[in-house]
Amino acid sequence: DVKVTQSSRYLVKRTGEKVFLECVQDMDHENMFWYRQDPGLGLRLIYFSYDVKMKEKGDIPEGYSVSREKKERFSLILESASTNQTSMYLCASSLSLAGGPLGDTQYFGPGTRLTVL
Amino acid sequence: AQKVTQAQTEISVVEKEDVTLDCVYETRDTTYYLFWYKQPPSGELVFLIRRNSFDEQNEISGRYSWNFQKSTSSFNFTITASQVVDSAVYFCALSEEFAGGTSYGKLTFGQGTILTVHP
Questions:
Q1: CB of B78 within 8 A of CB of B19?
Q2: A51-74, pLDDT tens digit by residue?
Q3: How confident is the model over A103-108, as a mean pLDDT?
Q4: Contact B105 A31 (CB under 8 A)
Q5: Which residue does chain A place closest to B38, by CA atoms?
């Protein structure tokens, strides 16, 4: 089974703090993704990575950065947290586009509910 | 631009009722993939099904069935004889065409439908 883990289920930070959200997958997947989920808006893509040290902006990258130093780990960084970044953050990974019929299927972690005060 | 619409924000049913969750999508791609995910109260999105744009055959998996109609750009999900454990948020999603392998399977999600099944 694919396992995607996220470092924290719940996190409370103060405005202006630097926040790190960590995601680890154990299935040697090439692609990793960070989403935020807000009521009524569904999931919106923040950043994704298709290889180590490679990253691409998603639909809402402002205020965020990412790091992928190892294949299994993808970090989301809030350089200076703000109250409008209070949200549920979900990490996902997928094998690769060449991975057969389900190579592009994304598997999700349990999510981190971040509150910025 | 791609778009996925789940018009039903919330649905409430009584156990054993059948329920259909609607999903309508927009895309200019000729090749695309549609997904359904379930998000139980624990928060983790669980993959349910993937369907490619060339396969309009309906699919049934136990109490779950999916109706894909390209003519109406819809990919609806039906739960037969619903159970309390089906209570969750359900998301429909659409992936971009793999044009030259540059899309990396990015997903566009609908807003989600909250399904509550009462005993």
A1: yes
A2: 898 898 988 999 999 999 999 999
A3: 83
A4: yes
A5: A108
